[in-house]
Structure formats: C-alpha cells, structure tokens
Amino acid sequence: MTLTLEYLGDGRVARWTLTPDGAAREVHEAHHPTLFVGDSVDDLYGRSGGPDPAPPSRDGLSDALRELWSFLDGQEAIERLSVESHRQTFRTAARPLLRVDAASIEAVRMVANRVRQFGQPDTYTCYNVDFTRQLRFCLETDTRAAPDRSARDLRTLHLNFPRHESDIESLPQLAVEGDCVGSSPGETISGVQAALDDHDPDVLVVSTAALVPLLFEAADVYGVDLKLGRRDGYTTLAGESTYTSYGTVGHSPARYTVPGRVIVDEANSFFYHESGLEGCLDLVERSGLPLQELGWASIGRVLTAMQIREARDCDVLVPWRAWRPELFKRASTLDDADRGGTTFAPDVGLHEDVHELDFASLYPNIIRTRNISPETVRCGCCDTDDVPGLDYSVCDRDGYLPEVLGPLIDARSEIKEEIPDVAGDERERLEAASSAIKWILVSCFGYQGFSNAKFGRIECHEAINAYARELLLDAKSTLEEAGWRVVHGIVDSIWVTPADDREQRPLEVVAAEISAEAGIELEYECAFEWVAFCPTRNGESGALTRYFGKRRGEAYPEAGLGDALKTRGIEGRQRSTPAWVEEVQSEALRVFDETRSPEAVCDVLRRHLRELREGGVDPSALVVDNRVSKDVDQYSMETLTVAALKRAQIEGSGLAPGQTVRYVVVDADARGASRVRLEFEAVPRYDTGWYEDIAVRAVESVLAPVGWREKEIRQYLSETKDETLASF
To answer: Residues 531, 354: contact at Cβ < 8 Å?
Structure first.
C-alpha cells in the first residue's frame, strides 16, 4: 500500500502509507535500482527459440557480456554485478543476462549510456532502464502502488493561483479551497500553513506546479516555517521542457514532490482533468503506477505501465530504446497497409429519422478477438493469410497485448452496466473510472505505431486498421441489404436512415447479426430526430467530421442544450472559440431545431451582434485560447497570436512553445502588441468587426447544411430590420 514515495539518497527510500488519522513513514534501506544487459537476440521479434538457459554464474555469460562485466566492475555507479536468467522477448526462452544493481536512481541511466558506448550499437541491449522512479520501486519490491483506503478516503486541498503570475508580491491572489487566506505575501504563507495544519491533506491539487517553489521562496523571505509536505522541503523531479510529438508542440511544466503528500498539477494532469481523483485512483489500481506519477502521466505512459506489469508476469524484460525495423514488404503491400480507418463521404444536408450504431471499443476488441500483438503478427512460425487485404499471418499462440487489454474492456463494460442503477457519489465514481479506462482503450491502437512504444510494432497498427476497414464495410453492406441507407460512417460509427421504397428489417436484429459475425458488438447508440452534415468550408463536398443532430426524446434543460444535441467539429467544440461565440452558436442551434428557419437563426445572430456593437458583451466572454508552437521571434507572420506573445513579453509573463496564450482582440487592424489585450489585463474596448466575423462563421456552420452560406447570411442581415418572433 502506497500513498507516495521519496528517494532519500544512499539507497534509502521512504514509503508513506495512509493511517486512520494521517500517514505513516517507513524507510527502506539499501534499495538499489536494477537494470539488465543482454546480447542482441537472434531475432528481434523472437521467432527463434534462442539458446537453452544457463546456470546463473559469471561463466554462464557470453564472451561479450563477460567483457562488459570486467569493464563495469569497480565503477562508483555500480553497487554489484551478478547473473540472472530472464526472457528478452515474448518468444525467446530465458537466458543468462548481466544484472547491474546501480548505486542510486540517478546512476541507472548513466550506466546504460556507458554500456551503449562500450560496444558496437548492436552488441548489447539494455533492459529496465527508464522506469519512472516510484513505479520502479513498486516493481522491484513488489509493493502495491495504490493507497489503502479501507480506513479512510484521501483528503485533498486545492490551491489556485493565476498562471500568469510568478512573483512573491502576487501571492495574495492565491486561493485555498476557493478562499483568500491573506492580504499580503506573509499573511498568505501563514494562511496556507494554517490550512495545511487544519486539513492535513494527502493530496495537494495545485492550479500550477510553479506555486511550489514560489511558496517556499516567499516563506524564506518572510520568515515563515512552511511545511507543504509532512516534513520539511521539496524536491524538483524535472524542469520544464518543450517537446514535439507528431507535428504538435507541447510543453511540460516542471514537476515537484513534497514528503508525505501527492502533488497533482491541474495544468499538467490529463487524467485528473478528464476523470477527477477517483478516475486517477482507479487507474493506479489497474496500472500499478503510483498516484504521484499518474497525476502527470500521459495516456501512453499509463498504458506502458500496464504492459510492463504484464511483461514482468511473463518474465520478459522491458527494452530501453527498442529498435524494431519494419519487416520487408512489397510496394503494393505498403500502399495497402498505409491507410487508416474507413470514412464514408457524408450526405450533406439535413436528414430526418437517423440512427447511429457504434462498434463497442472497436480497436481494443480487434486486438483482443484477432489476437493482435507484436509477437503474433507476422510471427514467422505460421504460414497463413489472416489480415484482410494485407495477408499478414497472426499466430495461434495467445498474444500478450490482448491479455493487457482484456480486463480493461471487461471492466468498462461492467461499469457501464452498473451506472444506470446507481446515483450520487457511487455514480460519480463509476463514471470517473469508465472515463479513465476509455482513454487507455482509445489510445492503445495508435500506440502500436508509436516509435517510442516499448512493445509497439507498425505491423500491429496496420493489421488493426485492416480489420477495422473490413468490419465497417461489411456492416454497411448488411445494413443496406436490410433496407437501410447509410448517410455517413467514421471508422467505428455508422449513421443510417430508412431507404425510400424499401421495407426495413429491425435495426436491433440487424445489429445483432453483424455483432455475431464480427465477434464485436455493434451497439445501438441512439436515434436522432434529425442530423445535419456540414459541407467543407469552401466547397460543397461533405466535411468528414463536422455534423450536429438532435437526439430523439431528449429535452432542452433550462440552462442550454445539454445532452439533447450532439455536435462534432463545429466552433462550439473547438478550444480556441470564445465563450460568446459558443453562446451564439448554441442559441442558433436551438432555434434551428425549433423552426428549421434560416431567417429565424439569422435573427438570433442579429440580436447578439446588436449587443456586441453596443458594448454589452463582457470581455471575459471574448477570450481567444491558442496554443503557441514557436518562440515569438521564430514567427514570420504578424498574427494575433504573435501579437499576444509580444504583449506577454512586455507584461513579463513570456510563454514557451507548447503553452497556451489567452487574449481579447481589441484592434485586429493595428500593428504589434496593441492589437490584443491579455486575459488578465483591463480591456478598454474590443474589435467589434473581428468578433462579428467569427460569429457569422459559427452561424454559417449551422445553416450551411440547408444551403445558407456567409453570403446569404450577410445579405439577409443587411436587407432586414425586424426580427421574427421565432428567434426569441
């Protein structure tokens, strides 16, 4: 049972566990992280059996490993050297490997780099190198990563601080559980300590991790004895950095830890944002990744932790910087394989009586039902043509990847069945767990094609896509034979409406037949009173992922559309869209549903534009939210985002690539930083014309399916003055 861990140096690790009234600290002496070194395996995919296991002695090693032993022996970074037999792949037998117990957690990567430099690039393979530190301790000591909540639940404390602030004098803006705790920096630090003493939290949820060093800096300046953790001090785990992943620039904030408490940085926690603390704790149980690390982990890192656990259960080591060259393929096979999922061109326009069906967890279930795994696809021991269109073989022996995903698929199905029968806190807990698992299942397919995936392989990625294409095409054919017309389809979802002059077989019956044939359930998602598929912005063909529709039987709650309307791809779903534009589009959708009248929708727009021109819109509802992809000096065009970056520099709150800048447009036609005001600045005015343009585009998305584009909208606005009653 683990709340959190702290590395103390000299091989000591303190483990904190929950107690009925607080937390207990236990120090583990002489914990030395372990890595392994082996010869490069005969076949990277494990298609040969490898040599028989040898006894665990120095004499059992190969000549190359004995030479490496002599090189490493006596180095300060090494605690001890020994021999252990383990499997290097899922298809090879155990063989003698060099076990290296490092002197410290910091020495592990140092030793691995020395090994790589000692021999030729293909001489040695290092294993178990880049585990995160808390996961490593739990793995190597067989310690359960999840806190024991049988005695009590976790206690949390929320600290919120403006992200653009970074100086001590701004600390009075800090809120603890939503309340101000001081009117001066000194009072604020004392107020934070009083809140810590009063709540004795196990988890600190901070709006930005930069608050941690700032609080300690202020405590030194004002002479306050601050214990953010259950003991003195804090540790910097990693500095901030910028990275690029598949063309997208991201920013990773600095990470910190304090003794005896978990820090969750809301600005750097995907799973906390998506599923809350309960969802995070559910994944801690399933992945074995302690809460401190799961708080900042990506989806891929959590999936990797699950794969590492499965590999260790099979006595398979985890490669460091695994190099998996793509197997030889014909040019025609490359062309066939280099395709994604199937998407049907949508039938642009408004469609009545539409039904949506979805394959349940399509990609994870393909992996499970078709036995897709790095060691099973093109295994070398089977001569079959299993994968449709690619003729890859898939081994009959069970793969490890289905073993990882199977329990997750089953767990989410069981949770979804339980949710309708519970309410209150239990319902929230189940929904959080379902959401957390969903993201792991969604990403497992793409992770197989990720170059840095520990056990990924591009052939798995290609095979999954090939099966998915076949399943959707087969489903389309079956539905059409049953009297239904397909109006759209995207990878795992398909929309149908009754075909004219045809008798339809019941959808539930047809879906059950497709499910039985596919081995994956085709679920009846919902019925729509109507669905509108949008054309592309500057053309007449269907936009593949832009649509909206009214679910049958759903009512509008007082505050808005709620679950009644399903939207994808339009402005209201885009992060950069200002809240005011979202409001305009939301009301336009409501009126469109009630009237089907483009004129009534335009009257809604007219009313909002009048408010905008009269200065009646709160500037906080006009904030634009854009991600920065470069340093400000690297941009060649003077966009509004560049203007905002320049203004941030002037205000002393410069942003790194990958971070988000938020601003209000005050004069789009001006030059330089004067074009915008940052979110936290006073806004003397806003650019009415600029916001009018984006509001018109948002309404165009609503009306384009019925033939009204920007030209028709502006023409109507210019020619009419009186609004229709239907617009209210």
So the answer is: yes
CATH superfamily membership of 619-685: B family DNA polymerase, thumb domain, alpha/beta motif (3.40.1820.20)
Q: What distance in Å separates the CA atoms of residue 307 and residue 317, rounded to the nearest whole number?
A: 11
Among the residue ranges 119-128, 139-148, 257-266, the one predicted with the least confidence is: 119-128
Q: What is the pLDDT of residues 664-695, one digit of tens each?
A: 999 999 999 999 999 999 999 999 999 999 99
pLDDT single digits (tens) 182-225: 999 999 999 999 999 999 999 999 999 999 999 999 999 999 99
- What is the rounded CA–CA span in Å between residue 432 and residue 440? 13
Domain ranges, ordered by start, for the chain: 35-141, 333-407+452-535, 547-617+690-727, 619-685
Residue 441, token pair as written in the block: 């299942």
* Residues contacting 142, CB < 8 A, separation 6+: none
Instruction: Give me the helices (H) in 184-298, please.
Output: 185-199, 211-222, 270-287, 291-294
Q: Which amino acid is located at 100 in the chain? A: V
Q: Can you tell me which residue has the tokens 């793969």?
A: 399
**Is residue 559 very low, low, confident or very high in pLDDT (cuts 50, 70, 90)?**
very low
**What does DSSP say about strands 484-490 and 343-344: parallel, antiparallel, or unpaired?**
antiparallel
Q: Are 378 and 327 in contact (CB under 8 A)?
A: yes
Residues β-bridged to residue 495: 356, 488
Q: How far apart are CA 109 and CA 556, in angstroms?
A: 57
Q: Say what the pLDDT of residue 724 is.
A: 57
In this structure, whether the domain defined by 333-407+452-535 belongs to CATH 3.40.50.10540 is answered with no
The torsion region of residue 491 among left (phi > 0), alpha (psi -120 to 50) and beta comes to left
Q: Is the dihedral of CA 508, 510, 512, 515 positive or negative?
A: negative
